[in-house]
Amino acid sequence: MDYVVAALVGCFVALGVYMLLSRSLIRMLLGVVILGNGVNLLIFTAGRLTLDIAPIVPEGVGHSVGPIANPLPQALILTAIVIGFAMFSFLLVLAYRTYQALDADNTDTMRVAEPEHAPNPTLSY
Amino acid sequence: MNTVIFRTIAPIIVAIMLVFSVYVCLRGHNEPGGGFIGGLIAALAIVVLGISSSAAEARRALHFDPLSIAGAGVLLAGLSGLLSIFNGNPFMTSIWLYLNIGGSIVPFSTPMVFDIGVYFVVFGTIASITLALESENGEEL
Amino acid sequence: MAAENLPSAMIETVTHAAAWVIVLPMALCLMGAALLLIVRKYSGLGFMLALTVVAGIISCETSLLLQVMESGPVGMTMGKWLPPFGISFTADVFGASFALTAAVVTLIVLLYAEADRPASLAGDGFYALVLLLLAGVTGSFLTGDLFNLYVWFELMLIASFGLIVIGGRPVQLDGAIKYGFLNFLATTIFLLSLGLLYGLLGTLNMADILRVASLANPAAMVGVAALMLLAFGMKAAAFPVNAWLPASYHASPAAVSALMAGLLTKVGIYALLRTLVILLPTTRDALEPVLVLVAVATLVAAPLGTIAETNLRRAIGFLVIGGIGAVLAGIAMPSLTGVSGAGMYIFHAMLTMTALYLVAGLIEKQTGETDSRHMGGLYASSAPLSILFLVLILGTAGVPPLLGFWPKLLLIQAGLAEGDAVGGLLVVALLTNAVLTMIAGSRLWTHIFWRAGFIPDAPLAEAPGRLHYLATGLLTLLIVAAGLWPNPLFEVVRIGAGDMVNPARYTAAFGLAELTP
């Protein structure tokens, strides 16, 4: 099972990197999301995949009975998902605004901050 | 989307979703649910309202600025963590208060206050982002 | 497994209110930001409120620093759970003093921004975002848990993102896109390395990692450390992955550039220092060739960028990158002197880079130009500005007795003490960097101030206000004073570097020393 999920993580990361290499903003955005999901899956796998019971302490016992699943990776992933979601929505709004303002979805044509034909430095001094 | 049926039903859906979001938020400590998911449901309710009428209408229905709601949530969550300074515990230590109201024990705790804070944060943030995306005239977040 | 045999998981001792100085800076920052977000429509209130909050943070952090200097690193773990279960905050001398410097820089930038911001921009949440940024920076400096570090990094990223786009001019949006994507990628790579580290060690608490890191598979650990080097290198804008910094820093208003130049890359390089020197020292040895190469390349390439660039603030962006090279050189030589030099350079870079951007903002205001080719003759119309800029440029190049000189001295001492080819290479690179920075800086100064002016006093230009000069002058005065009396700073970095090279006191602050691996 671990190997299958590990391979899946690899696929996610590869796909994410591939999408990020694109010049279209929207594709890059999707690439970031896929990469992030790959990483979340990796954390989940790193916490060991087991078929144990849920990590809930039974009423009145005070400690867990028998082996339980590791709850920490789920807390980590939840945090990472929330943050990733916030970043994604922020980038989405930004990409939309940029599309409105610069009329560009292609990063090659976005040259406002770094002009394409930058002047040569002065030769004096 | 702007059909008569949808416009008529939307306020009812929104009301049900808002009540449900509060329910999900409050059951969160020991059962599935919590402030985050509750806030998401509430934000979705506002989105439904925005789709059925307009983003400006949804803003007016909210009465408060969504980002201010998010700010109030952070403030609430932070205050709930700071309370434990008074009983000699580290930051974010939970304090429980069991109140006997009408024969049933109702637990009040700082995690619940924190969760309500999270509810407002998520609600405010998501609502402000979606409303900014929905409105046409490119206003600032 | 009976319940009574389990070790206790909860803290039983009473936490005194005085111990709260370690979390109060973050809590104050976040709650202040929230309050500012609520009242952001009431102009005038925001500035005073932000100033009060930052002043409160500075007083908390001063008392924290004094406490740490006296009795060694302190820690606090959230919610009474014993580490490594609870999320820990730990302050050692480096963390506390960097956090304090960050708060001071923020205070100065707030003063400058108040003079700089047009009234039309009131109500855009600027002050809330500044405090949010400060919360992220302070949290990164004071946290004792790697996952928590990731959270603070993202908070910082979101806040800086918001700050770049305030105003919404196309150039800002363009800069923000590049800044946002590359930095988000960097934090995702950091998260990836965290996932692998957790899989290997089963813990992300820094002191706990220190305890068990030597037991893990060394080859896998090198992979994790390499990912961290890439992630933090991107955040710090080290040479091959620095493209986002000159693309975005000049887009936003001067105050925002100054704040980001002073804080963001320094947090990245500090995280690198912490992970590679304290947490994973064995992997650092394996990565040494890469570190040395990156350090040398950054040191040499960055000032060349300054020479080639005509946009003033972009040119200064390359100076920021050059400073990162010097800190990397210190990380590549983790002796007591090397780490001291790296730490001291971070102080210098935080203060000087902020001041440089503030002065650049004043120059742009005065001339109405952003391109250094079109400036000139400013000396005649604004002598104080030219003196400020000259002092800061000399400080960046490392001319004694300014603050930039002392960390470079320490780093060169460390390189000579290494006594091998690597140390020699780093010393040569550091000296080359100093010479090139001197050339680049003096060229900028000559072009802007000394050369016959194209527009000595253009009608468009706007004279900087008194508050502008107060903020910039205060910061420059601080830099000069710290350069003339470097002894307290030497004391700070000596203790800080001592705790980094030998982290026994650091682990003890978590109360983990007595647990056996």
What do you see in this structure?
The complex is a heterotrimer of chains A (125), B (141) and C (517). By secondary structure, chain A is mainly α. Chain A has a domain at 2-52 and 70-104: Helix Hairpins, CATH 1.10.287. In chain A, 58% of the residues lie in helices and 0% in strands. Chain A has helices spanning 2-20, 25-46, 72-102. Chain A is elongated, with a radius of gyration of 22 Å. Chain A starts with a helix and ends in a 23-residue tail after the last helix. By secondary structure, chain B is mainly alpha-helical. Chain B has a domain at 4-74 and 112-134. Chain B has helices at residues 4-26, 35-52, 55-62, 66-82, 110-134; strands spanning 96-101, 104-109. Chain B has a two-stranded antiparallel ribbon. The longest helix of chain B is centred in the C-terminal third of the chain and has 25 residues, at 110-134. Chain C is 73% helix and 2% strand. Chain C has helices at residues 24-38, 45-71, 93-116, 126-142, 146-165, 170-201, 206-212, 218-236, 244-248, 254-279, 281-308, 312-332, 336-367, 378-381, 383-397, 405-418, 421-450, 466-484, 487-501, 504-508, and strands at residues 74-77, 88-91. A two-stranded antiparallel sheet of chain C has the order 1-2. The model of chain C is unreliable at 513-517 (pLDDT under 50). Classes of the chains: A mainly alpha (125), B mainly alpha (141), C mainly alpha (517). Chains in contact: A-B, A-C, B-C.
Q: Report the total helices of chain A.
A: 3
The total strand number of chain A stands at 0
Pick out the low-confidence regions of chain A: none
**N→C terminal distance of chain A:** 67 Å
Element-level helix/strand string of chain A: HHH
Beta-strand percentage of chain B?
5-15%
Overall spatial form of chain B: elongated
Radius of gyration of chain A (Å): 22 Å
This entry's quaternary arrangement is heterotrimer
Under the CATH scheme, the architecture of the domain at 2-52 and 70-104 in chain A is Orthogonal Bundle
For the report, how would you describe the main beta sheet of chain B?
Answer: 2 strands, antiparallel
Largest sheet of chain A: none
Q: Determine the most extensive contact between two protein chains.
A: A-C, 46 and 49 residues
- How helical, in percent, are the residues of chain A? 55-70%
